[in-house]
Amino acid sequence: MSPIPFSPSLQAQIRERLTGWPATRTPDTPLKRAAVSIVITSNEAGHAVMLLTKRSRGLNNHAGQYALPGGRIDPGETEQEAALREMREEIGLALAPEALLGRLDDYPTRSGYLIAPWVAWAEAHHPMQANPDEVAAIFRVPLTDLVRPGSPEFVTIPESDRPVIRYPILDTLIHAPTAALMYQFMEVAIAGRATRVAHLEQARFAWR
Fold it and tell me: In the beta sheet, which residues pair with residue 72?
């Protein structure tokens, strides 16, 4: 697949498809609520990329794992406010509310969270810097890397009858919930296919 240009037409396509997407929401849940951002921006070649982070080793939860910028929603905070705040705190990316193009489905995690995924558009000139207390590194993953043959992978585990999703990128495996949200973004916003992902399983190590 040819590289996807980072362009106004791509931004308009993503916004239009997310505006028309009937995102699944869970109004009543015992799970803790969190918000993450699927940030689309550019690499040096002008190709569309998605930002991923590697969490710092010193964190109490999910240390060293790959993730989308995000975290728990504070009391009195909206999903959008939480998504924008976490971007600022984790990767120093300050975006206006208008940068949020739309929302994907709620995703319940085995570790007790309900994740609200928001898609954000960051122009190439926006500065960013990893907060070392939370983020060890920031990666720009070309969108075309997410649709290579055999990507994503769906495997089984003895502990569940649900398919486990993972992406073989960055010389490692990216697991759900991150992988599930990446997959739904590519299906809905890029390919234009109606795809749900709440049934996709997480690797056993992510259950705690």
Answer: 34
Number of neighbours of residue 162 by Cβ within 10 angstroms: 15
Q: Which residue has the tokens 């043959």?
A: 149
* pTM (whole model) above 0.85: yes
pLDDT digits (tens, 9 = 90+) for 71-88: 999 999 999 999 999 999
Which stretches in the chain have pLDDT values below 70? 58-64
In CATH, the number for domain 8-207 is: 3.90.79.10
Three-state SS string over the chain comes to CCCCECCHHHHHHHHHHHHCCCCCCCCCCCCEEEEEEEEEEECCCCEEEEEEEEECCCCCCCCCCEECCEEECCCCCCHHHHHHHHHHHHHCCCCCHHHEEEECCCEECCCCEEEEEEEEECCCCCCCCCCCCCEEEEEEEEHHHHHCCCCCEEEEECCEEEEEEEEEECCEEEECCHHHHHHHHHHHHHCCCCCCCCCCECCHHHHC
Q: Where are the domains of the chain?
A: 8-207
